[in-house]
Each structure stands twice: as structure tokens, then as C-alpha cells.
Amino acid sequence: MILRFWVFCLFILPINPDGRIHLFIHLPETLMKKTLLLSILILLFVVQPNYAKIPGRGEVSGVVKSKDGRYLSNVNIRVLNSFWGTTTNHRGRYRLQLPAGTHIVQFKMIGYAVIQDTLHIEEGRMLTHDVILSVKPIEFQGVTVDASRSESNAFYNSFSIQQHHVKNVPSLGEPDIFKAMAILPGVVQNNDLTGNLHVRGGGADQNLILLDGVEIYNPYHLFGLLGTFNMQAIKGAEIFIGGYPVKYGDRLSSLMNLQTIDAPRKTMVNLGLLSSGFSLTKTWQKSFLFVAARRTYLDLLVPQLDYNFTDSNFKFRLGERDAYGVEVVGFYNKDHLIPEADDDDPLSANWGNWMTAAKLYWHTPRFKSYIQASFSRNFVDFTPAPFIDNRISDLTITTRSSILWNNHLIDFGISSKRILFDYEWLDSSGDIEEIFHEGLPDEFIYNDTPLLHSAYLLDTIRLNQRISLEVGLRYNRWQEANFWSPRVSAIFSVKPEFKAKINIGRYMQMLAYGREGIEASIGSLLLPVSAPLEASVISTGLDISLPANMHVSVEAYYKRIEQLPRFSSDFPDFETGRGNAYGADFFLKKDQGALTYQLAYSFSRSEAQFGQENYPFDWDVKHNLSALFGYEVYRGWFINGVVHYRSGAPITPMTGKFMRVSEIGDEQIPYFTVTEDFIPGARNSARLPDYFRFDLGLRKKISRHNFNYTINFQVLNLLNTENTLRYDWLSYYNSYTSGGDGDQQRGGLVRALPIIPAFGIEFEF
Asked: What percent of the chain is modeled with pLDDT above 70?
């Protein structure tokens, strides 16, 4: 093990002639020394001799089978009330070394009844314990989130979303994890044409999106209409609403932590109206390979719309998943659009992301640690006119460790991030504002490479049977200044089914949009800020378990934001102000039985203050309601539906129209043009009409020996509700439409999504 570590250092961490380790980026000497010292400490902690040689330990091993004699792989084996656990290999075998004594061991696998056995481990002895699992039909789960929460995440308003949850949410063509997030309490997606999520009054730039621990910037397909992440590749996601542990950073509103497939499963092929894809896994002894890819074919079905996207995922692991090994992951997605395919010199537009990361990890029953190096890039490339070449490149090195000691779970880690902002565009037609957002210059060049160094220490303490605490501190080094983020959380278990919790903390953010592209954006411009955004947050809530598999949670919060940026008249400089957000979230769910449902309601108010100007944020939605249900209607046919209601989002009204006369030409031949222009009212002083939409899905899974397939049929906006996306002010002032009662009404309303059907088939073999 020690030899593997030093081989890694020789190849991955080259040494300069002066004897210092070069970590790809120039760390301050003090931080570099701390990094080296921490790495040595981690090595001492995690590199342990074989358990069999440690006094006080014994071993249990065996085989897990089904009742029909089949070996079961990837069965989760966990020792209750401890860190110890493992999984079975492809032959159903497992091996686990434990301290001498009595332990309760749980054997769990989806589709089988859970078994808990009490085992007595003797020092220096081998215990053979074989297990047979009985098949248990999986009860249909509607569109609810995972009922169970890990003890470490119970401090926060956090949710676990798995593949089957996402597949139950009707979406455009295929499952979309962002659509599943949008039905959670406190989350608003207030525009049908973007994938931007707004959490508890925060902007879309205040959400941290991680894929296998790597930050992904602006991950949107087709302006947000389609999900960027292929659900055949995603194992699940942890969603933190409003607050999250100090080991993650740095954003103000939420964390979306996605994980790709990490265990063997059947090969899957998906055929849909908009796209098709596949995923496969392969194992060889202690190695694991996962590959997934997807492509849309809108350009083949609709030649007038020359658009397509591709994405792919890759994971390779060498070693034991719960012991030690090396893991390499990759992700790539690209959208390609030619708006005018018949032109001699057509515009070619491309945007997307790619990411790769390598991780070296060590796991023991009481110690877990890893070091990871990653590189990710977000790009926008338009040519020939307008010419756009925008890139965000992120190089990060991270190390994290956790120690289980008595009643304490101690986490600590450090990271160094180098971000390259390389923006360049040239546009004379004014299209740049439609691509990103208003107020941008026609010509712009920007290049900056800030460094962000971070460290954290987190202690989760179980004081007694009723009270648990989580105390954390995060440190950031940004723009040659130091910033500290303390956070404290507590859980009070009044009864096993009744828990109260409180969170108090400070959050930092070093990057910001300054302004969002609200409609049909391919990603707003993210820029570094000179002074970090700071949010002081307090939240308190109740979690209540009710009879009939029902669960209720209520949480209230208040957030105060300092150093809030928005673009000034001298782009790309920021002016700073303040902001605040407050509200309450209500969540009710039932996730077992023939009928499952979920109800999420949020009340929220948010406001910005710049000097004497006060106005609600563009995404301020006072009332937001999502209701979901799932039901087995007939012999394996399942129906699921989603109801969305929200009050209208703020807009800046145009209070009048005037004719603007402009003189053009030269002095010898002057001439004039007359254009219509508008007089804006107070910023965000009006609102769009309320929004309502009903989506419905129908699916059927059919099994034929080792070959399964699922049929999906979905209809978005089944009632064809005419929701308003925005106002076209030119049409608003120049045209009228007849109402149903014969009255004349103003036109200019731009509709959101009409009724849209979708169909798909997924194969497993």
C-alpha cells in the first residue's frame, strides 16, 4: 500500500529542482507545507496492516444467494451503528473483518426482503455465515423522494433522489433530474424554456452542481428544455435545500451532488422520440467499467431545425470499492445548432461541458480518505457571426478524510482550485443580447485566472440518544484575503417519530452571474467577484413520521445577503448591494403502497437593495405548489401525474411608447429613421399571470426471462393551459385580441409550452 502511494506521488506530483512538490498550480508556500503535512497524516491514518494481525479482531465471510440458488452480487452488507460494511462480488461472496463482540449485520438488496442477523465474532477466528434472500415484490413508488435520510444529512433539509424517482416525473421526452428537483419544497423553476433552478430566493448561480465530486458549470441541453445528465448514467443525487455541510463549497443556496453508476447492472438501451442512448457495465476481478452515451436526432426528423446534442459518461475503477483503489471518471456533452441551414455561410453554434477526474482512495472501517485531481470546462462557440469563444476551465485538487472516534465523526480536507475565464465575442447585429442577456457590449475580451484555496473541519457529535450536533468551520483564501464560514446544526429527537432541528451558518460565494439570462439562455456569464458574496442563514424545522407510511416536514428560514453583485454601466464591473429572503416550506409524502403521493408548498419572499432602489428578484415567487401522485391502474400499468402552480414572477412593465428619430448618413446626404421605443416603469413593479400546468405519464414494465423493457407515454401540459412566458411589448401596444365575451383585450402575450406528447421505450438485457 505504501509503495502504491509513493508511485502515485512520483507520477502525479512531480518535484521541482528546489525540492518542493508542484501541484499544477502555484500554492502559497505556507499552504503547500500544510498540504504536505496533511497528506502525511492521512497516510499514517489510513494505511493499516491487515486486520487479521490486529489483536481484538475476527472475521466473517460467506455467500449470499437467492432461494432459487442464484448468486447475488452487489448485496449491501452493513453493520448497524458503525462504519463497517461491504458488498458481495459477482459470485455472491463477501468478507468482513470486525472487532470481537456481538454485531447486528444487515443484508439488503432491492427486490429482496431485508435480513438482519446477530453475529458473535471471536478474536482471531473465522466465522462462516451464508445468507439466502427471499424475493419481495417492489411496491410501486410514485414521484416521491427517498424516505430515508442518512444520519449525517438529517441536520439539513436534504433529499435523496434515485433513478426510479426521476423516471416517474413526466418530462420532455425522457427523464430529467432537474425536473425532479423542481418539485421539491423551496425550489422554483419559473420558466419553461430554461433549466435554471431558484432555491429559497437565490439565483441560479447560487446552486453548486457536482458530478462525481467535480463542479459542472451551466449544464443545460437545448436551452434547458432537455436534461443534460443522462439518467441511464446517474445512480442518484443528494439535494441540499438552503444549507449544507462545510465540506462542500462555495455557493449560497443549495447543493446538487450527483453520482454516476458504480456497480454492475444490466445493459440498457433507451429509444425515444427525441433521443436514444445506451449504457453498459463490465467487471473483471477487481476492476469495474461503466460507459453510457446518448444522442438526439431532431436534425434528422426536422431538417428545418438543424439541432442535435450528444453526451457520454465514463467510469473505470481498479481495486475494491470499499477498501482501496483508483477511480477515473469522465463526462462530455455538446449541443450543436445551425439556425439557418440553407445559407451559404451558416451560423454554427456549439456549447457544452467536458470533465475528467482521477481519484486515489483508501477505506477502512474507521477511516476514509481520498485525493482527487479534476479538470472541467464549460464552452460556448459561435461562428462566423456573431463570433463567440467563451470558456471556463477549472483545475482542482482535493483531499478529504473522515474518522470515526467514539461518538464523533470527524471530517477534514483541503482543496486548491484554479479557474480560467477566457471570454471573447464580436457581434454587430445585436444578437449577443438574445444569446445571453441584455446590457452586453457588442465587442468584448476578458481573461482572468483567480485561485481559490479552501480547508474545512467538521465534527458530528452524538451527545445522547436525543441530541446530536454538527459543528463545522470552512476557510477560503480568495483575492489575497482570508474568509471564514462557521456553521452549527442541531437535532433534537423528542420522540423517534418527532424531531426538531436548527441550522445557523455563514456561506460564501466567489463567482456570480451579475444578471441571468431568464429566457432560452445557453448559460449566463459567470464572473469572479472581488469580494465574496456572504449569506447569513438561520433555519428551523420539524420532521414528523405519521401512520400509514406518511411523513411531514415543515421548515422556516431567513437569509441575509451582503456584497450582492449586479452589473454596473461599465461592464463587466459589478456594483454591490444587499438582499434578503425569507419563507417557509411544507412537505408531505407517502411513498409506499398502491397509491403514493407528494405535496410540496413554499411561501417565499426575496428582495434586493441597491442604494435607494428596492425591488423583488426576477425569480421572486410568493406561492409555489407541486402535487404528485402515482397509482397502479391495471396489471402493472402505472400512472403518475404532476400538478404545478405558482404565482406570477416579477417583470418590469413598459408604461408607454414613443417614436425615436435618429439621424444617419453623412452631412451631404443626411436622412432619418423612425423607430418605436418604450418607457420602462419601476423595476419588477408588475407580475406575470399565475402559472398552472398538469403533466401526466403512463408506463408499463414487461419482463421476459433475462430481457425487460419499459414503455413510457407522457403528455406535458395535458390541459393545454395558456401560461404566459413574457410580454412582447411591441405587440402589446400595437395589437388587440377579442376576449371570449367580445371585449377587446391587449395582445402581446407570449405563451409558454403548449401541450406536448412524448413516447419512449427502455430495454434491459
From this structure: 82
**Taking CA 683 as the corner, what is the angle to CA 251 and CA 513, rounded to the nearest 5 degrees?**
25
Residues 42 and 67 in one domain: no
**Residue 11 pLDDT:** 33
* Distance between CA atoms of residues 593 and 349, nearest Å: 48
Relative to beta strand 650-651, strand 686-687 is antiparallel
Cell of 309: 446534442
Q: Is residue 17 predicted with pLDDT exceeding 60?
A: no
Angle at 488 between CA 486 and CA 493, to 5 degrees: 170
Q: Residues 6 or more apart from 40 whose CB is under 8 A from it?
A: none
Residues 542, 160 contacting (CB under 8 angstroms)? no
Under 8 Å between Cβ of 227 and 175: yes
Helix/strand number for the chain, H first, E second: 7, 47
Q: What is the pLDDT of residue 584?
A: 97
Domain boundary among 104, 136, 168: 136
Q: What pLDDT does residue 48 have? A: 38
Q: What percent helix, strand, coil does the chain show, rounded to 5?
A: 10, 60, 35
Give the separation between CA 603 and CA 492, rounded to whole angstroms: 25
pLDDT band at residue 535 under the 50/70/90 scheme: very high
Which domain-ending residue is among 102, 136, 170? 136
- Tell me, what CATH number does 94's domain have? 2.60.40.1120
For the chain, the distance separating the N- and C-terminal CA atoms, rounded to the nearest angstrom, is: 38
Structural domains in the chain (count) = 2
Structural domain harbouring 93 = 56-136
CB 597 within 8 A of CB 589: yes
Is residue 392 included in any domain, yes or no?
no
- Cell numbers placing 512: 456570480
pTM for the structure as a whole? 0.78
126 and 68 within one domain: yes
Question: 420-452, pLDDT tens digit by residue?
Answer: 999 999 987 778 887 888 788 889 999 999 999
589/596 Cα distance (integer angstroms):
8
The SS3 assignment for 182 reads coil
CB 398 within 8 A of CB 23: no
C-alpha cell at 196: 435554471
User: Span 148-158, mean pLDDT?
Assistant: 64
Angstrom CA distances, 174 to 165, 218, 272, stand at: 13, 20, 7
Instruction: Please give the pLDDT value at position 49.
Output: 36
Question: β-pairing, 254-260 with 207-211?
Answer: parallel
Domain membership flag for residue 153: no
Residues present in the chain in total: 765
Position 741 confidence tier, pLDDT thresholds 50, 70, 90? low
- Residue 39 pLDDT greater than 80, yes or no: no
Cell of residue 481, nine digits: 484575503
Residue 108 lies in a domain: yes
Cell numbers at 498, concatenated: 418527532
Please give the single-letter amino acid code of residue 148: S
Closest CA to 602 of 577, 579, 627: 627
